[in-house]
């Protein structure tokens, strides 16, 4: 059974409360439940992790290096655009990394158009709301 790690970054615990025009009304708990259900369908074990602390995110990524993780799905939130620490931690991994975003980062403010994670990710899925996560899980499981 493949083990997929889902990483939710800064402020994503506020899904369902934060800017529903951009992010919809689904809560992080609902997104995680949908990921768990799809993971079962796909025959994958899904572990979800959220933090608002950059060091904790890096530590969890480091842990994935040796814990049998087969793929990583990451929505780093605002860290996407400037956290070289998270980018470098991800670069240590030899498993597929799928970058996801609920909103279309390329159709938003200019600072959101650039991802420092993109060059270490196998691919990027954005703009499909909570379904971005499900599409990303399908890609990570494939």
Commentary on this structure:
35% of the residues lie in helices and 20% in strands. It contains 5 helices and 5 strands; from the N terminus they run E-H-H-E-H-E-H-E-E-H. Helix 2 runs parallel beside helix 5 and helix 3 packs parallel to helix 4. It is globular and about 35 Å long.
Task: Give a concise summary.
The protein is of the alpha/beta class. Helix content is 35%, strand content 20%.
Total strand segments: 5
Radius of gyration: 14 Å
Shape: globular
How many alpha or pi helices? 5
What is the mean predicted local confidence, pLDDT?
Answer: 94
How would a crystallographer describe the biggest sheet?
5 strands, parallel
Span between N and C termini? 12 Å
Which residue ranges are poorly predicted, with pLDDT under 50 across at least 5 consecutive positions? none
Class derived from helix and strand content: alpha/beta
The helical percent reads 25-40%
* H/E element sequence: EHHEHEHEEH
What is the spatial order of strands in the main beta sheet?
A: 2-1-3-4-5
Notable traits:
single chain; 142 residues; alpha/beta; 5-stranded parallel sheet; 5 helices; 5 strands; 35% helix; 20% strand; globular
Can you lay out the helices and strands and say which pair or pack?
Blueprint (H helix, E strand, L loop, with lengths): L1 E7 L11 H4 L4 H15 L1 E7 L3 H11 L6 E5 L8 H9 L4 E5 L21 E4 L4 H11 L1
Parallel strand pairs: 1-2, 1-3, 3-4, 4-5
């Amino acid at each position: 059974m493949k083990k997929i790690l889902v990483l939710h970054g800064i402020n994503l615990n506020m899904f369902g409360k934060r800017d529903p025009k951009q992010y919809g009304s689904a809560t992080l708990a609902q997104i995680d439940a949908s990921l768990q259900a799809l993971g079962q369908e796909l025959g994958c074990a899904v572990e979800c992790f959220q933090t608002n602390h950059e060091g904790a995110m890096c530590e969890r990524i480091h842990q994935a290096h040796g814990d049998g993780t087969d793929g990583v799905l990451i929505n780093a939130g605002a860290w996407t655009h400037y956290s070289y620490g998270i980018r470098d931690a991800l670069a240590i991994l030899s498993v597929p990394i799928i970058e996801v975003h609920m909103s279309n980062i390329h159709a938003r403010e200019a600072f959101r158009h650039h991802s420092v994670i993109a060059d270490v990710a196998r691919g990027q899925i954005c703009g499909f709301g909570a379904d971005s996560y499900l599409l990303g899980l399908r890609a990570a499981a494939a």
